[in-house]
Specification:
Blueprint: H1 3-14, E1 40-44, H2 49-54, H3 61-72, E2 80-84, E3 91-93, E4 98-100, H4 105-122, E5 126-130, H5 132-139, H6 145-148, E6 152-154, E7 163-167, H7 170-174, H8 179-208
Parallel strand pairs: 1-2, 1-5, 5-7
Antiparallel strand pairs: 3-4, 6-7
Helix pairs in contact: 1-4
Length: 209
């Protein structure tokens, strides 16, 4: 079975996932999207309200910012596989809408096999983690985004293992109330993506050689 066909099979299997209680309040599983063989995999924390309703990752305001920033950094969004560490939306009631609630360690661990399947089948050269939760899901609880933002780490000791790099989640950029500070944070976010683009170019060159 090809990687694309197996990825489709895993996606179908994940649609009925009940490995943790989050499925009970979520509309549906939101699995990753993109092509097997994509050089870049982007991993967020979990789907948001709009993603939960649509069934697709990164379709809300943060996703629009991500797509624009990738393109600005010279990365083709269509050659990027996007997913989340947790596949169900965890939320609490707000006055007017459902409010994002951070997943706990048990929920992240329960969802890790799906992420492992995605990494195994997509085989990205680089994994970009958006936010501390996504980074800690792959690199361990000791990872500190404030200390290691923009640094590359090997996922594991295998020779073909992808490199992992973390930056802030685009939703964090959108939450900044000051327009000037929000503009500065967006510029730094794009700068982080340009670091990813440069490493992807470097890896593509070494592979061709």
């Amino acid at each position: 079975m090809s990687a694309s066909n197996e990825l489709a099979r895993v996606r179908k299997e994940a649609a009925g996932c009940q490995r943790c209680p989050l499925w009970k309040r979520a509309t549906q599983t939101v699995f990753g999207e993109g092509k097997a063989g994509s050089p870049l995999m982007v991993v967020g924390e979990q789907p948001g309200d709009k993603e939960d309703l649509a069934g697709h990752p990164f379709v809300g305001p943060a996703g629009h910012l991500l797509t624009a920033a990738l393109a600005e950094a010279g990365i083709d969004p269509h050659q990027t596989y996007t997913t989340n560490a947790v596949k169900h939306f965890k939320w609490r009631e707000g006055r007017k809408r459902r409010i994002h609630d951070r997943p706990n360690g048990g929920e992240i661990r329960a969802c890790r096999p799906w992420l492992d399947d995605e990494i195994r089948l997509v085989r990205p050269r680089i994994i970009l983690c958006l936010g501390a939760t996504a980074a800690q899901a792959l690199l361990g609880r000791s990872f500190k985004l404030t200390h290691h933002r923009g640094e590359f780490f090997p996922l594991d000791e295998a020779a073909a293992a992808p490199m992992v790099i973390a930056t802030i989640h685009p939703a964090a950029v959108l939450r900044i109330p000051s327009a000037d500070e929000r503009h500065q944070a967006r510029a730094q976010f794009v700068a982080d993506l340009k670091t990813v683009a440069a490493r992807l170019h470097q890896l593509a060159g070494s592979k061709a050689a």
